[in-house]
Design brief:
eight-stranded mixed β-sheet; globular; binds pyridoxal-5'-phosphate
């Protein structure tokens, strides 16, 4: 499909350049100091989690349901942290691993594991010739970098108003065994802020992939974020899979990076029991055991899903007023997160 610019005549392009140069000059003249880093909360937002730094001290009992917090062990994470992550994702805690501080890191490790060791007894992706990943576009560039890093062909799929174009996804997934996965941010997707409709989620769950080692990488980074009232509704993909009588098709990820501290949160993954057994085996080679002290701090601070909701409520209070344009005064620090759909709301992530 030609771009808008490709459809323009030379004269129209000249006019457009003049208009854009004037716009750039106007923005320069505002003297803004904006931190445009993607998905980066403002200092006001991270400050809301500073009290978490006080919940542990040298008198804290380093025990979580019989698990030593201050030593090796519990490779799946602390029982209380797994329960919290399970509540966040709406799944069974027995199918949850809490590990590390970055969900992207977990995604990377699972792409890497599929590439070197394969999924479900199938050959490693690296031994299957050309393999492909579907990339709803526009999307989150760090996802695409992971698959590109392994020489996997990233295939763009158009994003519609309610999620990826499922007719295209179905055609590619069900007819091409080289298609091994798809990157999805189902709630408030980068960069447009779209949340997948129930229909789209059900269509994902109903897929019959040509490749037995096809997995949906369901990055639910913004699962607990709300911006107006209850926020967007997202159908639980595992409920949709159960409805469709499917399993072993989804790896779901989350983290508290955008809830407490980016890069110092807790990260988690869930999948079917069979997939989790494989993930556990892979992680047992990559890691001894996770950062359980941070997990304990998170559980003591956030407590449960209601605690998370209350915490997120506080952060929506520190918003830029609806429709406000950042000024030199308001934007000297990294200001509230912004994205196209509802730009006034602080926890709306922003992506370049
Ligand atoms: C959709 C999405 N997934 C993952 C991440 C990174 O999360 P983490 O810090 O848990 O790796 C981001 C960060 O902006 C993101 O926007």
């Amino acid at each position: 499909m030609p771009t808008a610019y490709e459809l323009m005549s030379d004269q129209e392009l000249e006019q457009e350049i003049t208009r854009l140069e004037a716009e750039a000059e106007h923005l320069r003249s505002l003297g803004l100091k904006l931190d445009m880093a993607r998905g980066k909360p403002s200092p006001e937002q991270t400050a809301l989690s500073h009290p978490m730094l006080d919940v542990l001290n040298s008198s804290t009992e380093m025990d979580d349901q019989g698990v030593a917090v201050d030593n090796y062990g519990a490779p799946d994470g602390l029982p209380s942290a797994r329960a919290l992550a399970a509540q966040i994702l709406g799944v069974d805690p027995k199918n949850v691993i809490v590990n590390g501080s970055s969900s992207l890191n977990l995604m990377h490790d699972l792409v890497c594991n599929a590439y070197t060791h394969g999924i479900g007894g199938n050959k490693p992706w690296s031994q299957q010739g050309k393999v492909k990943f579907l990339c709803p576009a526009p999307g989150y560039d760090r996802h695409f970098k992971v698959t590109a890093h392994y020489g996997i062909e990233n295939v763009p799929v158009p994003m519609l108003e309610d999620g990826p174009d499922m007719a295209v996804v179905k055609r590619l997934v069900e007819n091409d065994p080289a298609v091994k996965g798809i990157w999805c941010v189902p709630k408030y997707a980068n960069p447009t802020g779209i949340t997948y409709s129930d229909d789209v989620v059900r269509k994902f769950a109903a897929l019959t992939p040509a490749a037995p080692d096809f997995r949906i990488f369901w990055d639910n980074a913004y699962v607990v974020h709300t911006f107006e009232g209850e926020g967007d509704h997202l159908l639980n993909i595992f409920d949709a899979l159960a409805e469709a009588g499917k399993s072993d098709m989804v790896y779901e990820f989350g983290s508290t990076a955008k809830v407490t501290f980016p890069s110092s949160g807790i990260a988690f993954v869930t999948a079917s029991s069979a997939d989790m057994a494989e993930i556990r085996a892979a992680f047992s080679v990559m890691r001894v055991s996770p950062e359980k002290v941070s997990q304990l701090a998170h559980v003591r601070f956030l407590k449960d899903l209601d605690g998370i909701k209350a915490h997120m409520e506080k952060s929506t209070g520190s918003t830029v007023p609806p429709g406000a344009t950042p000024t030199a005064a308001t934007s000297s620090r990294s200001t509230a997160l912004r994205a196209p759909r509802r730009p006034s709301l602080a926890w709306r992530p922003s992506w370049a």
